[in-house]
Specification:
350 residues; mainly alpha; 2 domains; three-stranded antiparallel sheet; two-stranded antiparallel ribbon
């Protein structure tokens, strides 16, 4: 099983030795800690890779991949072969969001390319649906009130932009993503018809979430005498309510935020009546949370684009477990228990 091999416990001589070679064949560094090498040289390596990729494109063609406000660059391949001397490098092209335009750039990491391309594609739809976006920006219901509740996280402009971008996400960026101009234009017209209604729906949900959030930091202070519960609640709130919670959270999960936040309020109210019960349930849940946190930390250390759908899913299962343990009255979409999540975690390690 994967869990039987803990890399951090292996003697150093069992780890693979990595060399960092520049574009001229010179060795820059060597070591067994890939995460550390990536952290130190990742940006430099990506820049060198893009320089090589740029030289592989004829100057006459390079312009068609820059300053893009529409899909005017033909079909975008998922993979590019780039030849440098006797070497063949593989690159992953992506649309890169530059605010008022996009560029096509090539990346050496497929997950990083996919993440950047998704955001770039969203920007290209925004540029093409400029009039609809302007209308939405001017007509978000209760924006000022929401901005007041969002103040501790960010500005009104940031909140408005996230609502617009999430509307574009839902209107235009459902899988599979377009790979050519015809597919892009079809998706654009489909999205145009739905964009305003989706923005209204998202704004209502965000308003509900922020209304629940508004008094929560103060409410949590009531749990301060109960140290472990208070720390757990603070950590939960910090993970849920980030500055970019609207656009960074899949909409299907964002819809559950009001229930998660209500569950925190109910937990604080119950805590004062029976702190030992809360403490016992924290002890039951903590090993699962720590396992997930360690796996997340290890994943982040692997590189810029590292992602794991199973870890993301488990993160939301932990949120549902909190509801099941501390606010049962709110119900969960499916039965949740510590034993069930232990089995899920074990299956993920195979």
């Amino acid at each position: 099983k994967r869990a039987d091999f803990k890399l951090e416990t292996l003697p150093a001589h069992h780890a693979m030795n990595f060399k960092v070679i520049d574009e001229h064949g010179r060795q820059l560094d060597m070591g067994r800690n890939l995460a550390q090498l990536r952290a130190e040289f990742g940006g430099q390596a990506q820049q060198s890779f893009q320089n090589i990729a740029a030289r592989d494109v004829p100057a006459a063609e390079a312009g068609q991949f820059e300053n893009l406000t529409s899909w005017s660059f033909g079909e975008l391949p998922e993979l590019l072969e780039i030849r440098k001397g006797n070497q063949t490098l593989f690159g992953y092209p992506a649309l890169v969001d530059h605010g008022d335009h996009c560029d096509v750039e090539v990346f050496d990491d497929p997950q990083e390319a996919a993440r950047i391309h998704h955001a770039g594609l969203r920007r290209l739809f925004a540029l093409q649906l400029r009039e609809q976006v302007k209308f939405i920006e001017k007509n978000i219901p209760n924006l000022q009130q929401m901005a007041m509740q969002y103040m501790t996280l960010g500005t009104q402009e940031e909140l408005r932009n996230q609502i617009v971008m999430m509307a574009l996400e839902r209107a235009c960026l459902q899988a599979p993503l377009p790979r050519n101009e015809a597919e892009f234009n079809t998706r654009k017209e489909e999205g145009r018809a739905r964009l305003s209604l989706l923005a209204q729906e998202i704004a209502r949900l965000v308003g509900t979430i922020l209304a629940e959030f508004a008094g929560l930091p103060r409410k949590l202070l009531q749990a301060k005498p109960f140290g472990s519960a208070y720390q757990d609640l603070e950590g939960q709130l910090a993970r849920l309510m980030t500055k970019s919670f609207v656009i960074d959270t899949p909409y299907v999960q964002l819809a559950h935020f009001p229930r998660y936040l209500k569950g925190m309020v109910m937990r604080v109210d119950k805590l004062k009546g029976d702190p030992s019960r809360d403490s016992q349930r924290i002890q039951e849940m903590t090993p699962l949370v720590q396992q997930w946190q360690r796996a997340e930390k290890q994943l982040r250390s692997q590189g810029r684009g590292a992602a794991d759908a199973r870890l993301d899913e488990f993160r939301w299962m932990l949120e549902e477990l909190r509801v099941a343990l501390f606010a049962q009255e709110l119900r969960t979409p499916q039965p949740m228990s510590v034993k069930r999540l232990q089995k899920v975690w074990e299956s993920m390690q195979r």
